[in-house]
Amino acid sequence: MNALLQVRDLVVRYGARRAVDGVSFDVAAGETVGLVGPSGCGKSTTAAAVLRLLRPAAGSVRFDGTELTTLGASALRALRPRFQTVFQDPYAALSPRRRVRDQIAEPLRIHGLWSRADGPPRVAELLDRVGLDPALGERLPHELSGGQAQRVGIARALATRPELLVLDEPTSALDPSVRAGILNLLMDLQDTLGVGTLFISHDRAAVRHVCDRVLTMREGRLTA
Ligand SMILES: Nc1ncnc2c1ncn2[C@@H]1O[C@H](COP(=O)(O)OP(=O)(O)OP(=O)(O)O)[C@@H](O)[C@H]1O
């Protein structure tokens, strides 16, 4: 059976520099794979290529058998609900003037999954799922703590019921006291939802705690 995510011989260049230099790995359905390594080794660039936020110079990224690197805009748009991301800085990822409930509803609206009857209860369910009181849906991002804001980011990423989550340093902008709560939430979501996850972090201990398998990157390559 094919892996949910299959990355082969990925190369990403910034000018002459090879930020990612021949990376290959799989993430199976429901599996949590960690990607660790020092600052600048190419982790975020790998994530951006997987999410098709940039086009690699060479190599292949297959999601559920579909080649993403060459996929046209409308086919890519149709696949996007199935792979979602959570960013490092939860406040930067949320728009400052929109209520939490609208931000969680946004991916549902964008992908035509919103209805007046089912939408609001789905937003409440998502808030509850990430450990937040659904009443927080009325708030604006600046009225949330950092941990609460990251939970909103996770709820938004889960809204379309994705099969793959790409988490790029989801806890490193948070206070250490809040970090453990978010890591526990992520583990709980793995257990209950079985979402495949690529978990990027420089925090090796956190990744070991959360992941089934850990890949180490150095200077654009995976180490053996
Ligand atoms: N937009 C860009 N233009 C030019 N060079 C870039 C760009 N983004 C990243 N780089 C360079 O590519 C290399 C890999 O960066 P990347 O952000 O992928 O590493 P990282 O492992 O995620 O680092 P960090 O943990 O600090 O986020 C670094 O040398 C970085 O300076």
Tell me what you see in this structure.
With 224 residues, the chain is an alpha/beta fold. It has a single domain (5-222), classed as P-loop containing nucleotide triphosphate hydrolases (Rossmann fold), CATH 3.40.50.300. The protein is built from 8 helices and 10 strands. A 6-stranded mixed sheet has the order 6-7-8-3-9-10, sandwiched between helices. Strands 2-1-4-5 form a 4-stranded antiparallel sheet, with helices on one face. A hairpin with a 2-residue loop joins β4 and β5 (66-67). It is globular, with a radius of gyration of 17 Å. The mean pLDDT is 94. Residues 14, 19, 37, 39-45, 202 line the site of adenosine-5'-triphosphate. Belongs to the ABC transporter superfamily. InterPro entries: AAA+_ATPase (IPR003593), ABC_transp_ATP-bind (IPR050319), ABC_transporter-like_ATP-bd (IPR003439), ABC_transporter-like_CS (IPR017871), P-loop_NTPase (IPR027417).
Please write out the topology.
Layout: E1 5-14, E2 17-27, E3 32-36, H1 43-50, E4 58-63, E5 66-67, H2 73-79, E6 83-86, H3 90-93, H4 100-110, H5 119-129, H6 146-158, E7 164-168, H7 176-193, E8 196-200, H8 204-210, E9 213-218, E10 221-222
Parallel strand pairs: 3-8, 3-9, 6-7, 7-8
Antiparallel strand pairs: 1-2, 1-4, 4-5, 9-10
Pfam family, one: ABC_tran
Family: Belongs to the ABC transporter superfamily.
Keywords: ATP-binding, Nucleotide-binding, Transport
